[in-house]
Amino acid sequence: MSEHTHRHNKEGPCHFSLMSLSAVKRLLFVAVPLLALWALVVWAGGWLG
Q: What residues form the membrane-spanning segments (predicted)?
């Protein structure tokens, strides 16, 4: 383990927060992976023909 602890400056560009995004971007951030997972399940199940 490194003796140096990694700390982010909350005001800096490195800080990421879902609350800083717009509502649409937050929705897409959650919906896109779920849709991708659903599409993978459908494809793997062979339900598309």
A: 27-48
